Amino acid sequence: MAAWLPATIETLLNRRSIRKFKDEAIDADTIATLEAVAQRAASSQFLNDWSAIRINNPALKAKIAEYGAQAYIADAPLLYMFIIDEHRNARIAQSKGIDPSSDEFGLKTSYRFTQAQNDAVLALHAMETAAFSLGLGCVILGSPLNNINGLIDLLNLPEYTYPVLGLAIGKPDQEPALKPRMPREMQFFENTYPADADGTLDALPAFDAEVHQYYDLRQADRPVDAFSDQIAKISRQDVSNKTLLDKAAAQGFTLDK
C-alpha cells in the first residue's frame, strides 16, 4: 500500500460503525452538504429512483428503534431511511400519458427494483463517507427491515416505493477498534472464480485468530466465536420468517417479471 494516501482513502480505510453519539445536533449546513453528496452518487440511467427520508420526530425514531431492536437508533442526532422510489417516476410517466398500472409501465419490474435498490445503496454510502470525512460517525441500519410493513405504514410510503437501509449519523461518543478484514486473496480473484475454492481458505486460520483477538480485546467478558464458527452458526439460523420481498407486491412491484 502506498506510503502516502489522500484523505478520502484514509477516511475509507478507517471506517467503523459508530453506535454511540454525543447529544449534539447536526447543523443545517452540514446536513445540506451530506445530502448534496448523496445526490452526486452514480444513478443508473439517471433515473434518480431513490429517495431518503430524514427523520427528526422523536416518536418516529423510537418506533424505528423498536422495529430494529436497537435502542441507540432513537438517540441518533440525524437519521435517514433510504428507499426505492419509482413513485416519483410513475407520476412523471403519468404526466406524459403512460398509465403506471398498465404493463406499459416497466419501472415496477424486478430489473428496475434492483436498479433502484443499488442506486439507493450507492447514495447512502456516499453520504456515509462524507459524514466520516467531516469527523462524524455513522452506522448503517438493516435491522428496521425486520418490520417492513411497519416501516411502510410509519413513513407513509406510497405505491412503487420500498425501504432499503437506514443511516444514523452523529458526533462520535466512542472510539471502537477497527474490525479486521479478511486477507485480500480470500476475496479478490483474477478473471474467474477459483476452481480450487478450498485454496481460498488457506488464510482462514490466521484470520480466525485475528478476529478472535479483536473480540477478546473489545469485550473480554463476552467471548465471541472465531469468524469461521460465526459463519457456521449463522448458516444454521432459520430466517424463513424474515421474508422481505413478499411485501413488494403490495407496493406495486412485480418482481416475477
TrEMBL record:
InterPro entries: Flavin_OxRdtase_Frp, Nitroreductase, Nitroreductase-like. The keyword NADP applies. This is NADPH-dependent oxidoreductase. Pfam families: Nitroreductase. It comes from Bifidobacterium callitrichidarum. Keywords: Flavoprotein, FMN, NADP, Oxidoreductase. Residues 13-171 form the Nitroreductase domain. One of its GO terms (molecular function) is oxidoreductase activity. Belongs to the flavin oxidoreductase frp family.
